[in-house]
Amino acid sequence: MQAMIEMTKLTKAYKQERGVFGMKLQIRPGEIVGIVGQNGAGKTTTMRMLMGFIKPTSGHSEISGLDTWQSAAKTKALIGYVPGEIAFPDTKSGATFLKMQLELLRRSQDVYVNELIQRFKIDLTADIKRMSKGMKQKTALVCAFMTQAPLLLLDEPTTGLDPVMRETFIDLLLQVKTKGTTVFLSSHMFNELERTCDRILFLKNGQVIDQLDQKKVTALHQYQRVMIQGTDEQDYNRLMQTNFELVDSEPERYTVTLLVNEKQTAPLLDLLQTIELQNISFSIQNLDNYFEKELATH
Amino acid sequence: MSFPLLKQTFKANFAVWSLVTLVMNAILAQLILMKQTATMVGPMYYGMLASTIIALFVVICGDKVLVGQVDQGSMAYILTAPIKRTTVALTQMGYLIGSLIVTFGLMVGTSLLANNIADAGFKSQVLIDLNLGAFMVALAFAGIVFAASGIFNLSKFALGTGGLLVILFILLAIIGSFADYGVKALDTVQDLTIVSLFDYKNIMIEGSQWLPKLAVLGGIAVATFGVGTAFFAKKDLPL
Ligand SMILES: Nc1ncnc2c1ncn2[C@@H]1O[C@H](COP(=O)(O)OP(=O)(O)OP(=O)(O)O)[C@@H](O)[C@H]1O
Ligand SMILES: [Mg+2]
């Protein structure tokens, strides 16, 4: 089957070694793939290359077999896009903007568009220049989803959304997934990617340095983060010398945080018996924790 | 050309365009209608005012049609539609040229009508040619601003080059016009501005030198509109 997105050694080199370097990626139709990375990692640059807004320095990318730079006008017919920075044209209200956009897309305001407006609780009468960050973001999301395009490119789609709207967004993502829509989205929030993505790429300094699939995510969840507080220096030293993976330590409070997997409960209990326990707490290892580690080690 | 985009651009620029067009027609009619001022139609209106007022529209809207929207980020929405960048540039260019045609077309009507009412004594052909000349200056200005608008991604750079150049040409034309009032040293200044390629004096004496000069303005317009379109189609857009 033809890949929806195919990147081959995709590179955009800006000055001072910034940009995106040698990105290789294949996304199948119907897949939801997330890309995470710190500020400046290259997420937006990747999206812009896929949109044909910027020309790769070397390598290339294709959408449904069409070169994203050469055939940008054709590939656009396949894409719904949410830009990383939302700025609307000078019009009166959300309603006039959506109408303009539908005209450009040569579509009419059908049932689906109205459904989207309702789901995101968009106030169409609001002055477009006075819209709050979240309102703008929601309007931009409606613009992308209303294309009903087979591919959605969403650059940090949830910035500015309140928790309820974030849920609405996730629901919508899962809904379009059932229709076979391919989604490539970027985010700083690992946890929302975890619920929707088939795969999550970790981008650092313009390079994909790690890739998590569902299997790896499940494996991650088998770990617990255990925070143990001892009473004195002796306890602390003992805690520091275990075979468990150390995630965090606070010598002043004689506290360490260890990574413990399901099968290691016995050794953990043994350890706890050797110290005078002040406090202990468990939390599930999630992607945020995982990438925290990743960020520290690379 | 994309019709929906043309419609959007028309709406977005309507206020500036209509105001400029109204002011230009009103002043022109006024000058022709009042007997004492009819002599100033040439040197003051076509020599100075016409290019200055239309420059307002050209600089503001020429900036807004491309670079303004790239800088602001709203161009992203236009370009998410399956539309070629060349088509976007050509549509915006079509808007600018079309608006100028309507503005100066209206001015032809206004001047002929006022001339008729006031019996100001202008030959119809002279009035038509004067408006054609002023239109060609406006077209060349529009091309220059459009080129800057297509080349740059930041409004301030486009205004600082294209916009500034247009203002400079107008200033030089105004300074140069004092040559007509006896300051001979300023003659050379007139060679520094494209505004003087619109030879209104020659048109008014029904000479034959003005037409080739207007062709030069046409050439500038073709080149600059071409440059703007070519750059806009190829450059990186931060959207
Ligand atoms: N036009 C440009 N010229 C020079 N450098 C650029 C340009 N665009 C982006 N960069 C640099 O490329 C790097 C990647 O930027 P990019 O916008 O892709 O990051 P990002 O992952 O989207 O970050 P954020 O999370 O802040 O949105 C940054 O270091 C940025 O400064
Ligand atoms: Mg970004």
UniProtKB/TrEMBL annotation, chain A:
This is ABC transporter ATP-binding protein. The keyword Ribonucleoprotein does not apply. GO terms for molecular function: ATP binding. It holds the Pfam family ABC_tran. Belongs to the ABC transporter superfamily. InterPro entries: AAA+_ATPase, ABC_transporter-like_ATP-bd, ABC_transporter_ATP-binding, P-loop_NTPase. Residues 5-230 form the ABC transporter domain. It comes from the Bacteria. It comes from Loigolactobacillus binensis. Keywords: ATP-binding, Nucleotide-binding, Transport.
TrEMBL record, chain B:
The keyword Transmembrane helix applies. Coiled coil: none annotated. Keywords: Membrane, Transmembrane, Transmembrane helix. The keyword Transmembrane helix applies. The chain crosses the membrane at residues 12-33, 45-67, 88-112, 132-152, 159-179, 214-233. This is ABC transporter permease. It comes from Loigolactobacillus binensis.
